[in-house]
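Chain A, query sequence.
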Amino acid sequence: MPDKLEQSPFDIELNHNILYEQLIPAAGTQGRLTMYLKSIQSLPLPPALWNAFQRACSEDASSQKLGEIIKDDPVLSASILRAANSSGILHSPINDVGRAISRLGHSMIRSVVAKHSFSTPNINAAKVYEIPMLWKHGMAVSALAEIIADHIPGCNRAEAGTLGLFHDVGRMGFNLIKEFMQPAELNPDKGHLVYENDRFGCTHIDMGMLLAEHWQLPDKISQGISYHHHPGYLEADAIPADIRAEVLAVYLADLLAIRLDCPGGNLGIILPHVSFTSMLPKTTLADIANDRKVSSELALVQAMRF
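Chain A, predicted structure.
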């Protein structure tokens, strides 16, 4: 297990969460992944609306402009209005999509649009994992990654948020391969990647890469999925420099989401390698956890009804 500094900025109170002794990487065999790829190819591609929405976000479009893109999809519009009027959000009722986007914020709207665009009956049918809980976890990590990105020099806030949303998408793919599942037990001395490999013949990283390729996600997001657990078992230099900051933001957001009992995540925690310490120079994860923005964003996620 890598050495940690005596006063690491990543130390957080664990409560009932498991502290892994180490996180051991594991990779599925090529034959198994080729077989799983056939199942993934049955999934529809995301609608054109997703690409139009992403382009508009990258151009920093107004809430009204985003609303114009979304309003032609009545199911998505209804989802956004329902989210904006959730019982946990104490404001006057909203009946306009543009105003709903203003209330929820671009980060949360991106999460709702992604869930709408990438959820399919094929993935929802099997019950290996509850898909709504996985989406809620992704939404929470996405929101927290954007907050943490502001404390990591050179971190792209929007890219960290998008990676946070999709980092665990591979776990959804396990619902497609239920018939290949084997009995397995989680060993805290090895961590959940070994457990997944024993149970499914691959990890959610492997499955996430297959889904990212099929769904034609941006290369940087696909690459981020492949590295999103690296801070738990390798030094910072093992992650390409152009995504290192965003990967760390998502890794820390995942730890924080697990620590704060957001649904859908793994219970196990392992703190980042000591070589990442300098990347969080002016604060600590514990201080970020106490930020009012964190509790506000998580309350919004918890209030979501799908």
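The two ends are 40 Å apart (CA to CA). The mean pLDDT is 87.
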